[in-house]
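Aggregate trends can hide what the representation actually does to any particular protein. In the encoding step, the backbone of a single protein was reduced to a row of integers, each denoting a local shape. The record that follows shows the chain in one-letter code together with its fold in token form.

***
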Amino acid sequence: MTRPRIAGGELNYTGIGATETGALPDGIECLVTQAYVGDGEAAYRRAVQGLLTWQLHKRAGLRVRAESGVVRPGTRVVSGFGVGPFRINAPCEVVWVRRPVAGGGPQSAGFGYGTLPGHPVRGEESFEISLDEQGLVLIKVTAFGVPANWFYAAGGAVTAGARRIVTSRYLRSAQELAAGVN
């Protein structure tokens, strides 16, 4: 017997997997945010562990319901933000995952997920933690999409503000994870 999915429908945008390949769809707004989160392989491993177990999202203040405690391709997740009746649920499906490799040296790990029906946007977002040649640990958040309907399109300024707030919380969460803050 298969368990019911926590979100229905199919991925609802063009460019599935584009945040991994870098071949982003033409004519669609794309935002890329990158920030320093720590130093050294241990910080990198802590940040990646938190990212791949949904802790980055939870620490950012999102309510997260996922089909798996570990990020895997095909996993569906519904993250929510807001309060009470003003909560917006954002169903997504993980479309790609890159896991860390053994040993040090430059590398990156992360995942991308795409939107499902009911999400306020139609598009994709990815989260990557990298360790560079100098031992710097960075996070990169890439997102592209269009409003899912006229209601979200009409609230463009509010939507953009919410996106900036959530992204800044992702960055702070990554810094906390890298530092080992509980």
User: Anything to note?
Assistant: Strands lie at 30-39, 63-66, 76-81, 88-98, 107-115, 121-131, 136-147. The chain has one domain: 30-179. The helical segments are 18-21, 41-51, 55-59, 150-154, 156-179. The mean pLDDT is 89.
